[in-house]
Amino acid sequence: MAAISPPASQTSAFDRARHWLRDSRIPPVYGILVIIFLVSIVLDLVFGIDDQLYIFNRTIMTNVLVRSVALGIVAVGQTFVMIGASIDLSVAYLISLTAVGASFLMNGNPDNIWWSVLVLIGIGVVVGFVNGTLITRLKVNSLIATLGVGLIIKGLLNAAFDNFAGSVPASFQTFAYGSIGPMPISVLVLFLVVAVGWFILRRMRFGAHLYATGGSEEVARLSGLRTERILTMAHIICSTTAVLTGLFVVSRLRSGAPWVGTDGLYDLESIAATVIGGTTLSGGRGGVWGTLAGVLIFSLLDTTFNQIGINAYMKQILRGAIIILAVGFYTVRSMREAA
Amino acid sequence: MTQLTATTSTVESLAGRIWHRLRTLNPVYYIALVLLIGVVVQNPVFIQPDNFLVFLSRSAPPMLLTAGQVFVLVSGGFDLSVGSVVTSTVIISAILANNDPGTTWWVILLMLAGGAVVGLVNGMVTAYLKVPSLIATLGTLLIVRGIGLFWSGGAPRGYLPDNFRMWGRRGITGLFGLREFPYAVILLIVIGVLLWLLLHRLNYGRQLLALGDNPRAARLSGVNVNLVRISAFVICSMTAVVAGVLLGGRGGVSIETGTGMEMQSIAAAVLGGTMLLGGRGSVPAAMAGALALELLFSLLNLLGLPKPLRDAVQGLIIIGAVAYAAYSAKRNR
Amino acid sequence: MKPFRILFFVLAAMLMVALVACGGGAPPAAQQAEQAAQQVEQAAGEAAQDVEKAADEAVAEVSEATSSTSEALGSEGAAVATEFYSQADYEAALRMRDLKPLNPDDPVWVQYLEENWVDTTQYKKDPPYTVCFSNAGVNNPWRVVGYTTMQAEVDLHPEIEKFIHVDAEGNDEKQISDIQDLVAGGNCDILIVSPNTTKALTPAVEEACKSLPVIVFDRGVQTDCPVAFVQPFGGFAGYNFGYEGAKFLVDNLPAKANVIALRILPGVDVLETRWAGARNLFAESDLNVVAVEFGDGNNDKVKTIVTDAIQKYGHIDGVWMDAGATAVAALEAFEDAGQPYPVINGEDQQDFLVKWQQEGLTAIAPTFPTFQWRTAVIAAMMTLKGERVNDPWALPQPAITQANLDQYVQPNMPPLFYAMCGCETMPDFPQRWGGTAP
Questions:
Q1: Residue C234 pLDDT grade (very low, low, confident, very high; cuts 50, 70, 90)
Q2: Which residues partner with B233 through β-bridges?
Q3: Between chains, do C297 and B256 touch, taking CB under 8 Å as contact?
Q4: Of C118, C130, C138, the residue nearest C191 (C-alpha)
C-alpha cells in the first residue's frame, strides 16, 4: 500500500497540473509558443551567429514584442470578423491607405495629429461599414467582398499617390519609438488593444452575440439577434484595428508608401495568426489571447531565423510548414477531445 | 389550317425554348460578350482571327487555372497555392531542362507529377488533418515557392528549350489560312473539354458537387468524401502546372511569373457563377469569367485608364457581379 | 436603427473632409467637398492623358523644370514624383558623365570619379572583425548576383571573422527591427546597410550611427551620418541609367519614331530617377513616346503590353526600359508579331546580351553595376583599418555598348546573371554564381 502511493501521488500531481491547465482556459496555442521558444533556444545554442543567447538580451527580446505590434493589432480585428464566420482581406490595403493618408494629412505638423487620426479612423469605420453591408445586406461572400473593396482602395490610393507623400511629425513617432520605463509604448498599445478585445468579446453582450452569430447565423437570428448589425459591427472593429496598425507602421517609417500594407502581407498573415491562435474559419470559436500567441510565434520565428542566419527561401518553406503543422496539431487535438 | 397552326406552334415553342435558354444563360457570357464588343469598338483589328488567337493564347493560362480552381471551389475549399505552383514550375523546369531539347518531355511529366504531389499534400492536409484549405494552401503557397527559389538560389538558372517553349509561344502554321493556330489554344480546348466532361458529365462531378453542397449528406449517400476532396486538389494543382508550362513558354523564365494568379483565378471563377464554399459551379462559365477578366484588362488598357484605376474598376465589377448573383438567387427562391 | 444611421452620416461627413484634404492641401472644410470630387475626376482625366501624350506633357513640364512636376503627381506613367526629382541632381549626373576615374589603374570596383575623402581613424580597430549586413532582400536576380559577389568578397578578407547577414525580405518594417537587433546584439564592429526604401530606413540608420560605423550602398538614406555612401555616380546613378538608354534611342532613331517606355513599378526611388533621367531627354527630342507602362518586372505582362502596343500603333521603333530583366520578353513580342526588332536598351543581364549578339540588335545596356556590393565590403574594411574613404564614393557606371559587348557575353552563365559584377577573377567563378565552367 505504502509502496504504491508515491507514483500515485505523482500521477495525481501531473493530473492536477493538466486539469489546472484545462480549467485555466489558457489557449493551447501557448503550448506551441513554448515549444517554439524552447526549440529556438536550442537552435540558437547550436547554430547561433554569435556566442550569446539572444533570450538574455533585453533589447532583442523587447524587439520580439515590437515586431508583433503591427500584425498583432490588426490580427485582433481579424479575430473579431473570423469569430463572426467572416473574413477580411481588405486590411492590407487599408493599412497602406492609413499610412499614406497619415503622412499626407499630418504633413510634418504636430497640430494636425489629432484631427488626422480622427479622420483616418473615420475612413476605417466607413470601410468596415461598407464591408459589413456588402456581406450582410447584399449577401456577397466575405472573401470576394473584402477582396473587391481592397482592390478599390488600392486603385484609388495608387491613383492619388504614387509615392511617399509628406511625413508624420517627429512627435507622432513617439508611438513607435517612445517607451515608458523599459516598455515601448507600442507594445503597451498592443496589450491594451488585446485587453479591450478580450473585454468586448468576453464581458460585453455584443461579444456573446458575435459568438452566437458566428456559431450559427440561422439560430442566432431565430433567437432574436440582429445578426446583420452584429457582423457589420465586427467588420467596423476590424477596419479600425487596421487603421491603428497603419498608424503604427507610419509612425515607425516616418512616411507611408502605397505598398507598405501589401508588402507586409498583413492580410494573409493576420488570418494565419488568428487561425493558429485557435479561432476557427467557420466562426463561433476562438479569442484574442490565442491570436496574440499566434502573432508572437511569427515574430519569435523571425528573430530566431535572423539569429541563426537562415537562408531567405528556407525561411519561407519553414514558415509554411509551421503554419500547417501548428493548425494541424490544433485541429487533430480538438478532434480527439471531441471523440 | 390545322397543319399551319401546328407548324407555327412548333416554331413558337422552338423560339420560346431558345428565349428561355438565353434568359437563363449564365450572365457571365453576356458580360464577356459586352466586353468583347467594347474591345472591338476600341480596336477593330482585335477581332481579326490572327489577333484574336493571340489574345486567346495569352488568356489560356488564366482560363485553365480558373477551370482547375473550380474543382476545389465546388468541393467547398480554396486553393491559394496555384500561383506558387506556376512560379515553381517555370523556375524548376528551367533548371532541369537547362536548354537541352532532349529533356523536355520528361521535365514536363516530372512537373505534372510534382503538381500532383502538391495537390495530394493540399488535399490530405485538408482531408485528414482537418486544416481549413485556406490555411493549408497558404502554407503550401509558401513552401512551394520557397522550394523553387531555394533550388534556384533566388534567380532563374538555365533556359527553357524551344520545344518546351513552343507550347506557350508557337502554333500550327498554315491551318485554315491562319498565320498560326497556337498550341496554347489547342490545349485550352482539349483540357477545357476534359474538365467539363469530368465535372458535368461523369458521376465523379456529381459526387464532387454533392460533397461541396453538404459533406455529411454526401458521406451518408456513399461518396468517398476524402478521396473525392483530395482528387479535386490534385486536378487543380495539375492544371496549374499546365498553366505554368504555357506561361514559361510564353514569357521565358522569371521569378515573377504566377504572382497574384491565385486571387485572380478565384475572382474569375466567382464571376463565372461558382459558389464559394461549394455546391455550385461550372467549368465553361468559370473559363468565360477568366476570359471576361482578360477582356476587361484589355478594354481598360485601350481606354487609356491608368493602371491604378484599373484595379478599382476590377474590384467594383467583381463585387457587382457577385452581388447580382446573390440578388437573383434570392429572387428566384 | 437610429444610432446606426447617425453614425453612418457622421462618418460619411468625415470621409468628405478627408477627400477635401487629399484633394486640396490644407482646406477649411465643407464647401470644398464638391471641388474635391472634381479634382479626383480631373486627376483621373489627366492621368489618362499622361499615358497617351507622355511626350507632349513632358515637354511642357521640363520647360518649367522641377516646379511643375507636382501637377502630374496624381497620375502614373509619365509623371516623375517630385520627391524623387531634383534638377540639381539631374545636372550633377550629367556632369559626372564627363568625369574619368581618378585611379584608372585600379580595378573598376575601387575606382572613384571624385575625391570626397573622410577621415576614419576614430573607427580604427584591430582584427578580427565582425561585419554585419542588413539586406533589403534577395528578392530579385540583381540582388542575388550582388549578394553572391559580396559573400565572395568577404571570403577574400581573412580579417573578417564573422559575417552576419540578416534579410528583410523586402519589408521596411522588418528591416528596421533587424537593424535594431543587430545594434542591440552588440557583436557588430561595423554595419553595412542596403536600404529597402530610402525614406523609411532613415530613422533606423540614424539610430545605428550613434552606436557604430555604418556603410550604406545601393539605395541611399536621407542622412549624412553613415561613414560612407557607396553608389555609382555617388548617388546619381539612376539619372544616368535612364539618360544613357534614352540618349541611345534619340541618337539611333529617326524623327517621329514610336517609342514605348517600360517601367517596373512607381514610387521606388532608384527607378523613379531612371525615368526622370530619360524623360527630360525624350521631351527635348522629336521622338514620339506613345506609351509609358508598368509591367511589374513580369515577363508575361511585359509581353502583353508590347504586343498590344504593336497592335494599337502599327509599329514600335524603340523600347526604353528602366530595368532589363524583361528585355528579352519585350523583344520576343516583336518576334511573335512578325515585326522587326526595335532599338532597345536592356541591362547587363546575360539573356539580353546573348540575344543582342545573336540577332545583331541595335542596342545598349546601361548598368547599375553589381560590383558595388564588393565595394561596400572594401569600404567597411578601410574604415575599420582607419584608412580614409570617399563619402560619397562615386564609382564609375560603365555601359555595355556594341564596342565592348563581346567581352561581357558569357553564355555559360544563368540568364539573369548581371555581367557588370567585377567577379570574373574571384575564386569559384563561375560555379558560385550559378554558371558552368566554359
A1: confident
A2: none
A3: yes
A4: C130
Q: Does some domain include residue C349?
A: no
Instruction: Kindly list the residues from chain A whose CB atom is less than 8 angstroms away from the CB atom of residue C81.
Output: 162-163
Instruction: Report how far apart the first and last C-alpha atoms of chain A are (Å, whole number).
Output: 35
Burial class (CB in 10 A: 0-12, 13-18, 19+), A14: exposed
Q: Which domains does chain B have, with CATH numbers?
A: 41-332 (1.10.3470)
Residue A304 maps to a domain:
no
C6 touches chain B (CB under 8 A): no
Largest CA distance in chain A: 82
pLDDT score of B207: 92
Question: Is residue A85 included in any domain, yes or no?
Answer: yes
> Given a cut of 60, is residue C92 above it in pLDDT?
yes
A111 falls within a domain: yes
In a domain, A308, yes or no: no
pLDDT at A176: 86
* Amino acid residing at A277: G
Q: Please report the pLDDT score of residue C242 as a whole number.
A: 93
Instruction: Render the burial of B215-237: b for 16+ CB within 10 Å, e for the rest.
Output: beebeeeebebeebbbbbbbbbb
Q: What is the ipTM of this complex?
A: 0.86
Element holding B263 (H helix, E strand)? helix B261-271
Average pLDDT, chain A: 86
C143-165 pLDDT per residue, tens: 999 999 999 999 999 999 989 99
d(CA A308, CA A49): 6
* C205: containing domain: 108-234+369-397+421-433
Cβ atoms of B123 and B234 closer than 8 Å: yes
Give the containing element (helix H, strand E) for A300: helix A288-307
Rounded to whole angstroms, what are the CA distances from C114 to A283, C100, C224, C347?
64, 9, 17, 25
Which spans in C140-191 are helix H?
A: 141-155, 172-185
pLDDT tier at C82, thresholds 50, 70, 90: low
Q: If you ran DSSP here, which 8-state letter would residue C326 be given?
A: T
Instruction: Please state the domain count of chain C.
Output: 1
What values do phi and psi take at C258, rounded to 5? -85, 125
Residues 279-308 of B with CB under 8 A from C: 298, 301-308
The CATH number of the domain holding residue C145 is 3.40.50.2300
Average pLDDT score over residue span C185-208: 90
Average pLDDT score over residue span C289-307: 89
Per-residue pLDDT tens over the stretch C28-72: 333 333 444 444 444 444 444 444 444 444 433 433 333 333 333
Domain membership of residue C5 (yes or no) is no
Q: Is C48 on the interface with A (CB under 8 A)?
A: no
Mean pLDDT on A102-127: 92
Q: How far is CA C73 from CA A102, C76, C83, in A?
A: 18, 8, 10
With contact defined as 3+ CB pairs under 8 Å, the chains touching B are A, C
Its domain, for residue A193, covers 68-287
The segments of chain B whose pLDDT lies below 50 read 1-2, 6
**How confident is the model over A303-319, as pLDDT tens digits?**
888 888 888 888 889 98
For the cut 50, the answer to whether the pLDDT of residue C73 exceeds it is no
Give helix then strand counts, H and E, for chain C: 14, 13
Helix (H, G, I), strand (E, B) or coil at B182: strand
Number of domains in chain A: 1
Cβ neighbours around A334 below 10 Å, total: 15
Indicate whether C29 belongs to any domain: no
C83 within a domain of the structure (yes/no): no
What's the CA dihedral at A171, A173, A174, A179 to 10 degrees?
A: -160
Please indicate whether, in this complex, the C-beta atoms of C184 and A60 are within 8 angstroms of each other. Answer: yes
* Dist. CA A217–CA A219, nearest whole Å: 6
Q: Which of A162, A164, A229 to mutate to test the interface with C (most CBs of C within 10 A)?
A: A162
pLDDT for the residue numbered A256: 81
Higher pLDDT, B18 or A120: A120
